[in-house]
Amino acid sequence: MIRIQGLAKSFVGQDGRTVEALRDVDLDVGAHEFLTVLGPSGCGKTTLLKAVAGLVPWDDGDILVDGVPVRGPGPDRSVVFQNFALLPWATVLGNVAFGLRMRGVGRAEREERARALIAAVGLAGFESKLPGELSGGMQQRVGIARALAVRPRVLLMDEPFGAVDEQTRRLLQEELLAIWEEHRPTVVFVTHSLEEAVLLGDRVVLMSARPGRIADIVPVDLPRPRPTDVAALGRTGRYAEITGYLWDRLRAMHAEHRPALSRRAGAAS
């Protein structure tokens, strides 16, 4: 479904220095897979996601979706960001139907599809509300419904639950799993949370500290469909084993990265 080969990306930082964000990234994502991506802060997770979305250029390597090279954004991919990115002047219905309108879908069909997804994310009755009248969790539900309305083959999610409280996060995780089970898009989900990566994913991609590379790919051999109460899954022994392994790997990365940072700081001074 998605093939990333030899991907490399650098950019110039605010201090004028070149920052190597990604180096030699190779990754295959299967059709209908729910892949989670985890790694230290600044390791290039979001850069990788934006590259797959076609939102940023890269220096070397290839990204293909169903064998077709990615040259920019496309109708086969939708993105959900942490900051919601809703149209503030449009209603919930208008926001969810926006992508369909841009693709020329007739009003009756686009509103029918939008209303069905609004109900699926638990917002039936809020169709006429503006984003400013909604909580953060409700706004993110709108963002998810909008992304799914165009029926993408690939759903790219950049820490979508990072800005909401823990209770809302748990509810959104459960709702997302239910929606994924029904529609089965291929999902690439970036997160900082060990627990979230394991609770949601079929596999967890662990990225190294900058420059970001694939340090490990860990299968999550927990049953599908996942329990409606994802917290219950978090109390199982296998879940604890996987999260414990990932934490050990991340802790080792941080320990290796600290001396390197100290050497660079000393050289700069």
TrEMBL record:
Keywords: ATP-binding, Nucleotide-binding, Transport
The UniProt record lists the keyword Transport: yes
Domain ABC transporter per the UniProt entry, residue ranges: 2-234
Gene Ontology terms for molecular function: ATP binding; ATP hydrolysis activity
Keyword Transmembrane assigned: no
Name of this chain's protein: ABC transporter ATP-binding protein
